[in-house]
Every structure is written in structure tokens, then in C-alpha cells.
Amino acid sequence: MQDVMENADYRSTGNHAVYGNTLGLELLSERDVLQERFRQLASVQADVEKLKTRINTLTTEVEVLREASIGYRQIRNRFLDVYRRDVIGDPDGRWTKPIGLGNAAAHNGDAVVDAYLYYLGERQDTTSFVEIYGLLPEKVLSLRRSGDFSSIAVLNA
Fold first, then answer.
1. For site-directed labelling of 61, which of 8, 10, 79, 118 has its Cα 20 to 30 A away?
2. Averaged in consecutive runs of 10 residues, what is the pLDDT profile of the chain (157 residues)?
3. DSSP per-residue letters across the chain
4. How far apart, in whole angstroms, are the C-alpha atoms of residue 118 and residue 130?
5. Whether the Cβ atoms of residue 60 and residue 144 lie closer than 8 Å to each other
6. Residues with Cβ < 8 Å from 112, sequence gap 6 or more?
7. 19: β partners
8. What is the pLDDT of residues 66-82, one digit of tens each?
């Protein structure tokens, strides 16, 4: 006991002043280090969750843009094919399918891409959207994120 008392010392650990032997003070110091690392880990975990959410959002945005680009390419192909057919005078029958696809892309509904216009703030007239599709834009994007392509196909029909 005499040896313990001779090796005892005062130190500051965390917000407290403590008195103890070298081994006990080292143990308290290690505890403080571990507590700080746990706080840092919790902060990193929160950041990871935010990043996961952001990745999911960006993944959805990329998929919507990819889907939108298909329709846009069909419209552009239609434009070029109609030009070739009507202006150049090349009424080749093989242009019928691309022109039809372009017409469908230009004139039929695309609930996901249309909902994305509202998500981006490019449109605010949700009444029109609801009249066309029967759902709010957020709900359509939720269907897309969940992979409910059959419901989306019904909306686009």
C-alpha cells in the first residue's frame, strides 16, 4: 500500500482532476481516448448515412436522365428521318419504325421524366400532373425508386 501511495499522482482526465497510481491514471487516459474515438465514429457513421442517401438520390437522377435521353434520342431520330423522307424525298419504308418511336416519345406520357421536371423545380403546376397521371410527382418518383415499373407502365399507357 505504501508503494501505491508513493507512485500516486494528480492528473487531469477529461473535465476532472483525478488522483491515482500510474496504472490507474493510464487506464483513465485510455478510456478518454476511446470515448473520443467513439464520438468520432458516431460522427463518421452519420456522414456515411448522409452519403448513402445522396448516392441513392443521384442514382435515381442518373436513371431518370438515362430514361429521358432514350425518348429524346427517339425524337431526334424522328426529326432526321422525317427530314430525309419529306425534304430529301427518300420515302424508304425502313424509316417508319423510327418515326413511330419518335412520335410516341414526343406525344405519349412519361410519368417519371415528367415528375422529375417538378422535382427539379422546372414546373410547379402539380394540378396538371395529377390530372394526367392521377398521382403527385413525388409519388411517381417514389414508385421509380422502389422499382415498381409495372405501375409506371400503367401510368404511361
1. 79
2. 60 71 79 89 92 89 80 77 79 72 78 88 89 94 89 89
3. -HHHHHT-EEEEETTEEEEE-HHHHHHHHHHHHHHHHHHHHHHHHHHHHHHHHHHHHHHHHHHHHHHHHHHHHHHHHHHHHHHIIIII----GGGHHHHHHHHHHHHS--HHHHHHHHHTTS---HHHHHHHHSS-HHHHHHHHHHT-HHHHHHHH-
4. 12
5. yes
6. 64, 67, 140, 141, 144, 152
7. 10
8. 777 877 878 877 877 88
Residue with cell 424525298: 89
Cβ contact 75:99 at 8 Å: no
For residues 70 and 110, is the Cβ–Cβ distance under 8 A? Answer: no
Q: 7 — phi, psi (to 5°)?
A: -90, 5
- Residues 6 or more apart from 116 whose CB is under 8 A from it? 61, 64, 68, 137, 141
Grid cell digits, residue 60: 435515381
C-alpha cell at 103: 412520335
Question: Taking a C-beta distance cutoff of 8 angstroms, is the pair 85, 99 a contact?
Answer: yes
What does the chain come to in residues?
A: 157
- CB-facing half-sphere around the CA of 79: CA atoms within 13 A: 7
